[in-house]
Amino acid sequence: MKLAGRGLHSGRACTVTISPCEGPTTLGRGDDRAPLARLRVEGRERCSVAVLPTGAELSVVEHLLSAIVGAGAFYGARIDVEGDELPLLDGGAAEYFDALPRGTTAPIAVVRSGSVEAHGTVVECAPHPGVDVEVVVDFPEGRFGVALKGAARWTGDAADYRARIATARTFGALRELEAL
Predict the structure, then answer these.
(1) Minimal CA–CA distance to 70: which of 5, 153, 165, 176?
(2) Strand (E) or helix (H) holding 82
(3) Own/partner pairs for 26-29, CB < 8 Å, 24+ apart?
């Protein structure tokens, strides 16, 4: 399946083609590709970047990677990107989710405790026999004019991911439009 659109930051046309394949899901551009386990994912200003073992970078990968986890598609997909950035599509992960194979891997498991903090965001992990992800959002009043607070939980069900998480959209404040 071919998904086409414009890059959020570059504004340039870009496409992602998802094809069935044997073995682990791979991501790349042409022959420069790697299985997901060999990618290094870095947080950058307003996006996530997948760095291939060769050093090549693919920008704005967060919705695709989220959809891969939600669909359990760690095996059976070849993901080809044309361009340096993935298309924004509808602003969420739904179109990526719909294009991926389902449940082609064993359940996700966290095997050791750890935490990462970057730019005021903290991610904490602890061993658990299944998937149990809780996200707590707390945007102070200054950023959006009103305080945004809330929590959401996901326990690994693909249908629940598609219904509640894949449809979430990227957002920003109007005063940030020029910078975006």
Answers:
(1) 165
(2) strand 75-82
(3) 26/77, 26/78, 26/79, 27/52, 27/58, 27/61, 27/64, 27/79, 27/81, 28/52, 28/56, 28/58, 28/79, 28/80, 28/81, 29/56, 29/58, 29/80, 29/81, 29/82
The reported pTM is: 0.83
Provide DSSP, 108-156.
Answer: P-B-S-EEEEETTEEEEE--BSS--EEEEEEE-HHHHSS-EEEEEEE-S
What are the φ and ψ backbone dihedral angles of 81, each rounded to 5 degrees?
-110, 130
pLDDT tens, residue by residue, 83-142:
999 998 988 899 999 999 876 655 566 778 988 887 677 788 888 877 888 887 776 666
User: Residue 3 and residue 17: Cα distance in Å, rounded?
Assistant: 6
Residue 31 DSSP label = T
Closest CA to 152 of 131, 132, 136, 138: 136
Q: Rounded to whole angstroms, what are the CA distances from 48 to 57, 59, 101, 155?
A: 10, 6, 23, 23
Q: Which residue has the tokens 């009043």?
A: 141
Residue matched to tokens 């399946």? 1
Reduce the DSSP state of residue 87 to 3 states and report it: strand
Terminal Cα distance for the chain, rounded: 29
Take residue 129 and report the two structure tokens written for it. 């026999």
Q: How buried is 56 (Cβ within 10 angstroms: 0-12 exposed, 13-18 middle, 19+ buried)?
A: middle
